Amino acid sequence: MLGHPKRTLLSLLALAAVLFLGIGATVAWGNPQGQWTPKLGLDLEGGRQIILQPQVGKGQAVNSGQMQQAVDIIRKRVDATGVAEAEVTTLGSDSIVVSIPGDPSEDILNSLAQSSQLAFRAVIATSQITNEQITPTLPTPYTPAPTPTATPTASPTSGATVAPSGGAEAPTSSATSTGANAALPQAYPAATNTPSPTSTATSSPAATPTASATPSGTATSGTTADSSKPKNASDTAWQSQPVAQYWIDTGYVTKGQTYNDLYTAFSCTNTNPAVGPTATQWKEAAASAPLNQPSVGCDPANKYLMGPSEVNGSQISDATYGQKTNSAGQATGEVVVNLSFNSAGAKAFGDVTTRLVSLQSPQNQFAITVDGQVISAPTANEPITNGQAQISGSFTQDSAKTLADQLKFGALPFSFSQVSSEQISPQLGSDQLKWGLIAGLIGLVLVVVYSLLQYRALGLVTVASLGVAALLSYGAVTFLGWANNFRLTMAGVTGLIVAIGITADSFIVYFERVRDEVRIGRPLRAAVQTGWARARRTIVISDAVNFLAAAVLYILSESNVKAFAFTLGLTTIIDLLVVTMFTHPVLTLLSRTKFFGGGHTWSGFDPARLGARTVTYAGRGRVTIADRKAAERKGSDSDTDAVAPAGGNA
């Protein structure tokens, strides 16, 4: 490609055209709609600030370790939307302040406050919900209100399925209390011992939960505890066991009542606080229930009494989302969340699904809950032993991504409620941006002046190259604003300004190499190619070092420093692209002209100014300085041999 400079320039033009046509397409048809200008960060545009307070059980306290864990997880959730330049900090000892640039949607704000504790629980009994209209959504945090207008929210969906995914081997890492989705033990201590499953293997569910007008299974109501101890999480003997102290502390049941009484009292539909706890309050209570004890939950169609959790989010090694594929590898259009368990999770999941296969409905179902909300209750048809599973249902791309990110980055040690949410003004404002741009413009002018004084007409190539680099940088920053929610802050602007010097440095290295080749007697056309071959290595190494430094800074830093590192790395890549696809091809074409190739005084390749004693290349039929020097030496030697000293008398 470099042997054909015009073709290379056309390729660069096509690349730039694709970039800006892509921006135009996002403006015309994008969802969300794009824009022709870069998105600005919190310090330049302002945004929304929310204050979150933890919701903990009765008698529980929040410690600094839990708050710091929550800050780290919320920051990761925000960053999952792109380089959004959000700020997440603690306020006092029991609040977290999240500042997000622009105007984030309520779904994004709600997703930050959810605990996202995932649990797989065996179904013990189920009954159909009647007279309820629920729109399936992911669970959202709720603050109990004194008015009877609150409405419960639900998640996708009673018809969801869980199926084995691929044939990948289960990861070999083991679960720990500090892994993804691990709730800190200080947050919700368990009331009783954890039951253990009786079998060891696995299952591939395909789902349709059963529904009936009355609870399925062998419910035993009453307030007297059954003397028989449950053998596993699916054992219906759990129904007659006394409820954990946690449920008594909520005030929704009394001491001595059983889980069947809790199941009967649990409401999936109530919106009137005057007649008892609302459905939302019940869900919030279920979200904090001990994992090693039974619980009750609802999906849009059914209510479930579930056994203790046997697999939870701390045993997930990865969570992704995408379209489900059939046996032929073709996308079906259904959006699913893909789960990968670690070695402990894979074994536990295999044990559960193997046991469920041999049971009758509804005990052959297991409920997948997130923050107390049942998002799927599939039937186990075969064991799943490879540590891979899919959660499917009425997910959208956005809701599936939200859930996958929450599961991937881990559960918060507790859910949060929003204390306040308000729009905030820019921290710096337009004046600082204006002066920052003026500083960049001054730097650019100084580089241009130096280039013209040092390289004369050749300096125009530097100016044009900087212009191309600026255009591509602007387009890249603008497009990334739509694609990855990248926002330009003052730190990012600083990175762009620093890039002016980095880009100019590449041109100087190249031009000086070419001028060195001219000084030693090469014709300009040959000097351009030879100089490029030698300068290219230096330029690539220099840009590689710059990019490596930017990458390390981006990985290890936070907030504004990360923005600086990102723009520095981006412009380093653009610099390499411009010097390869614009500067070198342009100089190659100029070397073929009479003005530059002939060594004009104002071309920047004037032989006298470069230290040569005569014209190095002046067109067809002219000799180079090397030939002239060789001819002079040969002529000098011939004269010495031909002239002899005169002898004899006068």
TrEMBL record:
Keyword Zinc belongs to the record: no
UniProt entry keywords in alphabetical sequence: Cell membrane, Membrane, Protein transport, Translocation, Transmembrane, Transmembrane helix, Transport
InterPro entries: SecD (IPR005791), SecD/SecF_arch_bac (IPR022813), SecD_1st (IPR048631), SecD_SecF_C (IPR048634), SecD_SecF_C_bact (IPR055344), SecDF_P1_head (IPR054384), SSD (IPR000731)
Main location: membrane
Superkingdom of this protein's organism: Bacteria
Region (Disordered): 134-237, 628-650
Positions with biased composition (Low complexity): 150-227
Residue ranges crossing the lipid bilayer per the database entry: 435-453, 460-482, 488-511, 539-557, 563-587
Subunit structure: Forms a complex with SecF. Part of the essential Sec protein translocation apparatus which comprises SecA, SecYEG and auxiliary proteins SecDF. Other proteins may also be involved.
Family of this protein: Belongs to the SecD/SecF family. SecD subfamily.
Function: Part of the Sec protein translocase complex. Interacts with the SecYEG preprotein conducting channel. SecDF uses the proton motive force (PMF) to complete protein translocation after the ATP-dependent function of SecA.
Protein name, per record: Protein translocase subunit SecD
